[in-house]
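Run log // design_07
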């Protein structure tokens, strides 16, 4: 994707998801991030929609985002928070020490990365023993008809949505790398049906 296209997508991202945020996603973010503690690293922080929901129990936030247009908006939203350090880093190569983070956060990131296994391996690397991985991701639909529709439109959606793979089996990837301690299936209301199936949960290193 060209720099111009990336900046254009960044400019429309918040308006595009506005209805979904209003119809429940803000609450899902708040519920998920209430479990964040200590030193937190967020992969693919985007425009910073999670930032207002981090609780006081978070002492430090390392917010990573590789897309320049998104990173600019992240700076505007999070730059005044004294706890925040912003880094233009990809999720498969995080610039932090091994076993140095209490909580890793991912919201709508694992669908977009080229190699989800590499990213989850990196998440495991940076987590301290007993650390938690908090995630909210849209996933492959459970029912065959909806999954087939995701397959049919996957390439077109990826071209529009910064390589988001709406039919990726993210649940299987998570289970292969972590012990899932909590998973809830929800729907991203106010959004296209391709990305409505969502999982929200918590995992630890197995």
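design_07 sequence
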């Amino acid at each position: 994707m060209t720099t111009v296209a990336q900046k254009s997508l960044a400019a429309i991202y918040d308006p595009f998801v506005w209805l979904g945020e209003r119809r429940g996603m803000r609450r899902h973010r708040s519920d998920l991030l209430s479990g964040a503690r200590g030193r937190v690293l967020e992969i693919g922080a985007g425009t910073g929609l999670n930032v207002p929901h981090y609780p006081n129990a978070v002492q430090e936030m390392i917010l990573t985002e590789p897309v320049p247009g998104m990173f600019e908006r992240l700076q505007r939203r999070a730059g005044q928070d004294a706890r925040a350090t912003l880094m233009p880093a990809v999720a498969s190569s995080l610039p932090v020490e091994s076993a140095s983070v209490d909580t890793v956060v991912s919201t709508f990131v694992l669908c977009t990365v080229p190699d989800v296994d590499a990213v989850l391996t990196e998440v495991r690397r940076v987590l301290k023993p007993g650390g938690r991985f908090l995630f909210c991701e849209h996933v492959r639909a459970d029912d065959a008809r909806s999954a087939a529709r995701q397959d049919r439109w996957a390439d077109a959606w990826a071209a529009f949505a910064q390589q988001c793979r709406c039919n990726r089996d993210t649940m299987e990837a998570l289970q292969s790398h972590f012990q899932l301690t909590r998973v809830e299936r929800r729907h991203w209301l106010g959004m296209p049906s391709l990305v409505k199936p969502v999982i929200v949960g918590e995992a630890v290193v197995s």
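Strands lie at 38-43, 58-64, 84-87, 101-107, 127-138, 178-187, 197-205.
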